[in-house]
Every structure is written in structure tokens, then in C-alpha cells.
């Protein structure tokens, strides 16, 4: 039975990945941070097969201990401060967790991996946010980075460290440059979930307005359930490499609003949406669109859920969730 250690197990991708690896027959360990982390009970209720290990990406010895305890074949490093807006106000913490955390995990694997017969394979969760003020359209594995947030800068650091440890020490370490991926497990702080949950609450008469920031930004939005399959595929290859994972389409936030309000039968979104200065960022990523042709060619990966189906999935889910909460 292959064994996987997932950091960021309580997050959106951690849950999708655990669900997917379970279908592949993996024994799954999740690194959980904090004292009495409130997300753990719900996680184990939904996924009783997950085994919890305690540790933190800011604490090197806890990562070494987790690797020695679990003896994983594969490590998926998904843990991060992942909310771009927060990275502007907590830049040092973000750099420590999202940036240096990758280095700590690579070092821990180098140390503990040397004690194992079979080398540990590692997936690093890199991000399209690294492209920032994009240098070319669409973005590929070869496009230069120009991050626009402390989060983006931290991800560039983690990305280059992953490549460097592969080249310097022969570690089987892959970096997946994933474009935005969403779904019903998305955190409420991100724009898509903020929209789908607000649409549901407006429909049920629980809220009357939705306040957002910059509506002109464009993102390449895919479904998280499709993207975790690409993570796994990367670690099954004969040679470690880096891959862009994206849909190749870009949509403005207004298009997400249009479909979401329509789906709930609420008509024109402009009747409900306002703007608030607090949701604008000091620097913005205006447009992202990825070229995943390398992943399609070499991994055989292809997205299954398209943009309208993604919006509908999220709105329908939140209509159910909010209706249950209101009872
Ligand atoms: P998420 O829902 O925000 O989850 C982040 C996870 O990181 C949570 O489980 C969190 O644990 C954990 N974490 C935070 N600080 C930690 C620390 N000090 N030590 C250990 N774990 C810590 O993020 P996601 O959307 O699943 O994304 C997964 C990864 O992919 C992240 O690295 C993100 O930056 C990257 N990524 C995401 C996207 C996307 O569109 N979703 C795109 C590209 C890259 P607690 O909440 O329990 O504290
Ligand atoms: O949903 P967002 O917060 O996601 P963002 O910044 O693109 O980051 C996500 O995707 C990255 C991949 O490119 C990941 F690496 C990262 O971890 C995270 O998962 O914001 C999307 C866009 C931005 O342009 C933002 O300015 O939506 C705009 N926006 C407008 N109003 C808003 C809001 N974003 C949020 N969160 N909340 C608003 O009210």
C-alpha cells in the first residue's frame, strides 16, 4: 500500500487529494497544525481513513519527526498561507510559511529520505500567482515570473528551491504551477466562494448586498477535483519535472457573477453587487491564462469540468448549505 503525507490536509486541495488518493488505495497521513485545530473534527468525520500527524511548516524538527513516523513514499506539500490579500498585511508570516516552509520540507526530505531504501517523491504546490504582471499570454513553464504580492514572491522562492534541490541533490521533487481552482470546498475568503455563498444567501433572503473589490481581474478558473489528479500524475512519472495546470480559458469576475446570479434565478447581478475599497489590493494580477499543453502531452491530464459547470456546481452546493443552516 503506497503511503502519502499531505501538508495542508484541512484545506480545499488537501481534502480533494485525500479523497482521490483513497480511491487509488493509498494510506493517507495529514499534517495538521495548531493546538486543537477546529477543522480536524469535520475533516475526520468526512474522511475517517485519514491519519493525523501533528506538525507545522515553520517548525523543522516537527517535519523531520512526521517523515520519520510516517515513512511516506510521496509528500504533497500543499500547506501555505494561501490568501493573497492576507499576504500584504502579514508578509513576514507568509514568507515564513509559504516560502521558507518549502525549504524546510525539502531539507527534511533530504535528511530523512537518505535513511530510506526508496527515495521520497515530493510535490510542491506552486502557483500562477508567480506570473503576476504577466510577461506573455498564455503562460507556460518557460514564462518569466513577476510576482505582485508577498504570497507570489514566497511561491517563487519555493518554486526555485524545489528546482534547485532536484538539480543539486537529485531529489524527486516536482513543482505544479496550478492556476486558480475552485469548488464547493473552497474557502469563503476567495472571490468565487464569496460570490456563490452570497448568491445563495440573497436567494434565501438572508443577505441583500454583495460587496467586492476589483471586478475587472481575469482568472483561469478550473475545478479543484480535476487539478489534484495532475498532482498525483506528476509523481508517477519516471523523471521529476514541472508542469502548468490550467484550462486555457480566462474569465472576468463579472462573468462569474453573471452566471452565478442567473443560476439562482436572481436576474441582473448589478442589482445586488457593490464595491468596497477594503477589497482592493495594493498591487493586482490583472490577467491569468495558462497553457497546459505540456501536462496534456506528457501526463495525459485534461480538465473535465468547464467554467459554466463549475459556477453551477458551487451555487447549487451553497443553496443547499445555506438552506440547511437557515433551518
Ligand atoms: P487552503 O484551502 O487555504 O489550505 C491551506 C492549508 O495550509 C490549510 O490546510 C492550512 O491549515 C495549512 N497551513 C497553513 N499554515 C500552515 C503551517 N504553518 N503549517 C502547516 N500547514 C499550514 O489552500 P488550497 O486552495 O487548498 O491550496 C493548496 C496549496 O496550493 C496552497 O499551497 C496554495 O498556495 C496552492 N495553490 C492553490 C491554488 C488554488 O487556486 N486553490 C492555486 C495555486 C496554488 P489550517 O487551515 O488547518 O491552519
Ligand atoms: O479569489 P482570489 O482571492 O484568488 P487569487 O488572488 O487569484 O489567489 C488564488 O489563486 C492563486 C492562483 O493564481 C493561488 F495561488 C492562491 O493561493 C489563491 O488560491 O481573488 C481573485 C481575484 C483577484 O483579482 C481579487 O482582487 O478576485 C479579485 N477580487 C475582487 N473582489 C476579490 C474580491 N477577491 C477576494 N478574495 N475578495 C473580494 O471581495
Characteristic terms for this protein:
15% strand; 327 residues; 11 helices; alpha/beta; seven-stranded parallel β-sheet; binds NADP nicotinamide-adenine-dinucleotide phosphate; binds ligand G4F; 13 strands; globular; Rossmann fold
Overview of the structural elements:
With 327 residues, this protein is an alpha/beta fold. The chain folds into two domains: 205 residues, NAD(P)-binding Rossmann-like Domain (Rossmann fold), CATH 3.40.50.720; 97 residues, UDP-galactose 4-epimerase, domain 1, CATH 3.90.25. The chain is 43% helix and 15% strand. The chain has eleven helices and 13 strands. The chain has a seven-stranded parallel β-sheet with strand order 3-2-1-4-5-6-11, sandwiched between helices. Strands 7-10 form a two-stranded parallel ribbon. It has a two-stranded parallel sheet with strand order 8-13. Helix 2 links the parallel strand 2 and strand 3. Helix 1 crosses helix 8. The mean pLDDT is 97. The site of NADP nicotinamide-adenine-dinucleotide phosphate has 28 residues, from helix 1 and strand 5.
Helix-strand layout with pairing:
Layout lengths: L2 E5 L4 H12 L3 E6 L6 H8 L4 E4 L5 H11 L3 E4 L6 H6 L1 H23 L7 E7 L22 H20 L2 E7 L2 E2 L8 H13 L6 E3 L5 E2 L2 E2 H12 L7 E3 L5 E2 H11 L9 E3 L17 H6 L8 H20 L1
Parallel strand pairs: 1-2, 1-4, 2-3, 4-5, 5-6, 6-11, 7-10, 8-13
Antiparallel strand pairs: 9-12
Bound molecules: NADP nicotinamide-adenine-dinucleotide phosphate and ligand G4F.
The site of NADP nicotinamide-adenine-dinucleotide phosphate has 28 residues, from helix 1 and strand 5.
Amino acid at each position: 500500500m503506497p503511503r502519502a503525507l499531505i501538508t495542508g490536509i484541512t484545506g480545499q486541495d488537501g481534502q480533494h487529494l485525500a479523497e482521490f488518493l483513497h480511491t487509488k488505495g493509498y494510506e493517507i497521513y495529514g499534517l495538521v497544525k495548531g493546538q486543537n485545530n477546529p477543522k480536524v473534527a469535520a475533516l475526520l468525520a468526512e474522511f475517517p481513513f485519514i491519519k493525523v500527524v501533528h506538525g507545522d511548516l515553520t517548525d523543522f524538527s516537527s517535519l523531520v519527526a512526521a517523515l520519520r513516523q510516517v515513512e511516506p513514499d510521496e509528500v504533497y506539500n500543499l500547506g501555505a498561507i494561501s490568501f493573497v490579500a492576507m499576504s500584504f498585511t502579514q508578509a513576514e508570516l507568509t514568507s515564513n510559511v509559504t516560502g521558507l516552509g518549502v525549504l524546510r520540507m525539502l531539507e527534511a526530505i533530504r535528511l530523512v529520505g537518505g535513511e530510506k531504501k526508496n527515495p521520497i517523491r515530493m510535490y510542491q504546490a506552486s502557483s500562477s500567482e508567480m506570473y503576476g504582471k504577466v510577461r506573455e499570454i498564455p503562460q507556460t513553464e518557460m514564462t518569466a515570473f513577476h510576482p505582485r504580492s508577498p504570497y507570489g514572491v514566497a511561491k517563487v522562492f519555493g518554486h526555485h528551491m524545489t528546482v534547485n534541490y532536484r538539480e543539486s541533490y537529485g531529489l524527486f521533487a516536482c513543482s505544479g504551477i496550478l492556476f486558480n481552482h475552485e469548488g464547493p470546498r473552497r474557502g469563503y475568503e476567495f472571490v468565487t466562494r464569496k460570490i456563490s455563498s452570497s448568491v445563495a444567501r440573497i436567494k434565501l433572503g438572508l443577505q441583500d448586498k454583495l460587496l467586492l473589490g476589483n471586478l475587472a481581474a481575469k482568472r483561469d478558473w478550473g475545478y479543484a477535483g480535476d487539478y489534484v489528479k495532475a498532482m498525483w500524475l506528476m509523481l508517477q512519472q519516471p523523471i521529476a519535472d514541472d508542469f502548468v495546470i490550467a484550462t486555457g480559458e480566462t474569465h472576468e469576475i463579472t462573468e462569474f457573477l453573471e452566471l452565478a446570479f442567473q443560476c439562482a434565478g436572481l436576474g441582473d447581478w448589478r442589482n445586488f453587487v457593490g464595491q468596497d475599497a477594503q477589497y482592493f489590493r495594493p498591487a493586482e494580477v490583472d490577467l491569468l491564462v495558462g497553457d497546459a499543453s505540456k501536462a496534456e502531452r506528457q501526463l495525459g491530464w485534461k480538465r473535465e469540468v468547464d467554467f459554466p459547470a463549475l459556477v453551477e456546481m458551487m451555487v447549487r452546493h451553497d443553496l443547499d448549505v445555506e438552506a440547511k443552516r437557515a433551518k
